[in-house]
Design a protein that fits this description.
By secondary structure, this protein is mainly α. Helices cover about 50% and strands about 0% of the residues. The chain has one domain. Helix 1 crosses helix 2, helix 1 runs antiparallel to helix 5 and helix 4 packs antiparallel against helix 5. The protein binds zinc ion. Zinc ion (ZN) binds next to helix 5.
Length: about 180
Amino acid sequence: MWQRSAAATPGTPAAMRPQAHIAASLVIWGCGNGRLAEAPVCALCGNLPDFDRNVAKALGVQRRDHHRWVSHSLVGWLPPSVLALRAARGTRHAPAVRRGVAAVWLHLLCDTYADGLAWLWPLDKEKIGLFMRNPELKDAGWKTPAPLSSHLGRVEAGLWAAAAVLALRRVAQAR
Ligand SMILES: [Zn+2]
């Protein structure tokens, strides 16, 4: 069950792919009543925590485990989430902002499921999660394989199926 260690879980593939985070974000969008134009914004929000890789690359930071960093921690997302929700309160954008914030937190929950996160960074850099990624398996972002024979592959397929069903429902409602 829940682990608090760096030990890898045998048979666990690399971390959740950006594609899976997009699907999870579209599920959130599909559960609401936002406009179609909001869907890509929601998908973008659902990938915000992983943009630290681009920042690190631009800064010349060498390889590191980004699941043990500010980008995947309580301290990294709680203040901006509260600020965004407060700023949007009472405005017509409030539902969209709520869904964007929910997409960010679903990203963190998915990563917690797939690999574990150092939620308490910088106080504690140990990961907390259901599975731990085998460090020998490379997280290649978009190119990371997610075969249906793996549990993460099945999770991703389930997310895309749910996103498709919800999108079809939205289209049917719009008619
Ligand atoms: Zn992530």
